[in-house]
Amino acid sequence: MAAKLHKWHRRIGLLASTFIVFLVVTGIVIQHSDELGLPTKFLTNTWLLNYYGIQPNPIVTYQLNNQTVSHAGEHLYLSGKPITDDVEKLFGAVIQNDQIIIAISDSLIITDFQGNLIDQITKLDGLSESPLGIAISAKGTTVVRGGTKYWESTNDLFNWQEYSGPHPQWVAPSITLPALRQVIETYDMGQQISLERFLLDAHSGRVFGKYGIYVIDAAAILLLILALTGIRLWSVRK
After folding, report:
1. pTM
2. Could you tell me which CATH class the domain 59-189 is placed in?
3. For the chain, what are the domain ranges?
4. Residue 123: φ, ψ to 5°
5. What pLDDT, in 10s, does the model give residues 77-129?
6. Which of 55, 61, 157, 170 has the fewest CB within 10 Å, making it most exposed?
């Protein structure tokens, strides 16, 4: 009886060892996730992203002469180059005084033509309302469409007054050309699954689909059986 139990103990141990190595390695890496910067590193493998069912976010683009301002997910792009994140919506962009003024859901973002951030203006800085549109007036001033009124910048973007001129020509979205779309979608998809989440899913078995959890459960049961048979063999020898 002991010989047969010992045989099964070895077989179970061999099978369980693979899961043990996998769980130990992923567990150690997850334990040091912040030190390794895993929350801010993302999956870029196309096969894995497709396996997760990741789809690119819709893209909104505004044309500015030979440049474009685009938004996808939470990211803002200048000619395909990501310039900032945590952006909910994009409502337009204009060029004034050799700067790009971008209207987003709660503020105005000012950049140079290389996409370097110069400033961000919110209602705390003097903006009258959150912008829902942006235009350049006939006299060259910046006009913002608020929820109730139109607002015109005076001598700088920190001072605003109610606009009273002709109806502004609000900038409208343009077509996102295929080459630009590909660049943005590649970056956007690569920012949706962090390495930390991937390892957590792998460690729990969720990365292997709806049956992956049961595989990990089976591995836990094998380890339990291994422990029990080990105790039994030890007691027999005693």
Report:
1. 0.69
2. mainly beta
3. 2-41+194-237, 59-189
4. -65, -25
5. 999 999 998 899 999 999 988 899 999 988 999 999 999 999 999 988 888 88
6. 55
